[in-house]
């Protein structure tokens, strides 16, 4: 029976890392708290000036294909 070798990730200094080091890195990454996506979107939207928001069509969510691809508008 042949087995395929498992990929062992490299650390930043290009050394192979063992399973314990990888597990620790995963736990550390999972413990970092991030804001919910809707808060990130609201923050980005807050960076756009109000006069630019005035240029967004009021039917953009319904007719986005029209504005992106030129398809006929929906009523």
Name some characteristics of this structure.
single chain, 75 residues, mainly alpha
Overview of this protein structure:
The protein is mainly α and 75 residues long. It has a domain of 42 residues. Helix content is 44%, strand content 0%. The longest helix has 13 residues. The N and C termini lie far apart (63 Å).
Oligomer: single chain
Structural class of the helices, strands and pairings? mainly alpha
Beta-strand content bin: under 5%
Total strands: the figure is 0
Query: Strand-and-helix sequence, N→C?
Result: HHHH
Poorly predicted ranges: none
Major sheet: none
SSE diagram, text form:
Layout: H1 19-31, H2 37-46, H3 50-53, H4 64-69
What's the short story on this structure?
With 75 residues, the protein is an all-alpha fold. It has a domain at 34-75. Helix content is 44%, strand content 0%.
